[in-house]
């Protein structure tokens, strides 16, 4: 299997960034689902209000993604990401002492700003700016490590909450973000920015923003196709994952087995990313994206069929996890391959605005589909949507104006 170590490759910076990303994902994203039931039981806050607040957090992070991208294009990535980690730590510390639901909601909305500056989108923009054609390898490595953020967040929050309550757990996550994530993000992104500046001196300098806007008309179609494809796949995964336990319950699957099926999707995402590393020289980015569409679409069919043949639930786990696991890698890589590196951060943020919003709204759309025609209709719509995503990726020209090599 290929490794991240090779001459000129900033492996140490990528490793530090991967650990930092794992921590910020655990602290700012997975803390919410990890502590949700404790907020309900300890504070008496309703699940509907709590989850609505988190949905608002995700939507706000999506809206701010282009702004974060523009800062990265201007070389402000280190300050943005390290500053977001510090700000997020302060917000979690404030969260741990609040007794007001309205203040709780306001803090989570503010964490949406933090997410826009600390999670995958800004991270991948920094990496792409620094490494260009080598970004795919680095991004895959980062997602392999950060894929275990939930594995860190859920047990850590559970154990600390058992000892001292959810407030102590929130304080622990804040400390982890402030004293571990922030320094790692600062050091790694500072070195990557230096790498980007050295690389920029050897290649064509980015075009002025006005000139880039003039050229945008000819790039609207590929941008639209990429955004449509990734938004659909992200929304499909979000819908299925959020409704997975109710779907399996409607198939009369036992609670223990249903939880086991749900727990298997995450590890299979890591398997999908490992496959990218193993076959990166033999599979183009476009082929990987098309395969992801096929895998997620077939997974919906397997989930539908599991009511008749329970063993299909195993195949669902393999297809859903490994298929979607490649998406977070392919999105920045294909964007660079298709539209080039000029103003990459802003363009990536614009794409994230749509894809993240789609993923945030998908669970609600799934509930509406369930009301209309049950989960049979819901899964049928997911399968058809994956066909649309496949068509969008297939419509991209085989040879781009800005090749990856």
From TrEMBL:
Keywords for this protein: Membrane, Transmembrane, Transmembrane helix
Superkingdom of the source species: Bacteria
Keyword tRNA processing among UniProt keywords: no
Pfam families membership: MFS_1
Transmembrane segments: 12-32, 52-72, 79-97, 103-126, 138-156, 168-187, 223-245, 257-276, 288-306, 312-330, 351-372, 378-398
Protein's UniProt keywords contain Membrane: yes
Signal sequence region: none
Protein name per the record: MFS transporter
Origin species: Jiella pelagia
């Amino acid at each position: 299997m290929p490794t991240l170590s090779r001459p000129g490759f900033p492996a140490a910076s990528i490793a530090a960034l991967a650990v930092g990303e794992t921590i910020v994902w655990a602290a700012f994203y997975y803390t919410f689902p990890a502590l949700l039931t404790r907020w309900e039981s300890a504070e008496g806050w309703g699940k509907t209000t709590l989850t609505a607040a988190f949905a608002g957090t995700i939507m706000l992070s999506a809206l701010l993604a282009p702004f974060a991208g523009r800062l990265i294009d201007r070389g402000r990535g280190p300050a943005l990401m390290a500053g977001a980690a510090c700000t997020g730590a302060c917000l979690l510390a404030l969260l741990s002492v609040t007794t007001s639901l309205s203040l709780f909601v306001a803090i989570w909305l503010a964490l949406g700003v933090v997410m826009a500056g600390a999670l995958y989108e800004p991270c991948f923009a920094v990496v792409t700016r620094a490494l260009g054609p080598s970004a795919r390898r680095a991004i895959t490595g980062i997602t392999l490590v950060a894929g275990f953020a939930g594995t860190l967040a859920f047990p850590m929050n559970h154990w600390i909450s058992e000892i001292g309550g959810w407030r102590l757990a929130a304080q622990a996550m804040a400390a982890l973000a402030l004293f571990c994530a922030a320094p790692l993000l600062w050091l790694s992104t500072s070195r990557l920015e230096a790498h980007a500046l050295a690389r920029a001196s050897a290649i064509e300098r980015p075009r002025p923003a006005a000139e880039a806007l003039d050229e945008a008309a000819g790039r609207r179609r590929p941008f639209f196709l990429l955004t449509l494809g990734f938004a659909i796949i992200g929304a499909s995964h979000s819908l299925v994952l959020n409704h997975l336990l109710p779907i399996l319950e409607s198939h009369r699957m036992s609670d223990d087995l249903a939880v086991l099926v749900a727990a298997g999707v995450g590890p299979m995402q890591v398997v999908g990313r490992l496959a990218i590393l193993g076959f990166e020289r033999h599979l183009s980015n476009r082929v990987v994206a098309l395969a992801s569409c096929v895998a997620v679409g077939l997974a919906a069919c397997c989930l539908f069929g599991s009511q008749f043949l329970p063993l299909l639930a195993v195949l669902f786990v393999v297809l859903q996890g490994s298929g979607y696991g490649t998406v977070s890698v392919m999105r920045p890589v294909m964007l660079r391959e298709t539209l080039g590196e000029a103003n990459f951060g802003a363009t990536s943020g614009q794409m994230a605005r749509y894809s993240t919003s789609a993923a945030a709204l998908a669970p609600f759309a799934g509930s509406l589909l369930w009301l209309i025609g049950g989960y049979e209709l819901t899964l049928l719509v997911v399968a058809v949507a994956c066909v649309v995503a496949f068509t969008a990726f297939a419509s991209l020209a085989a040879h781009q104006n800005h090749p990856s090599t």
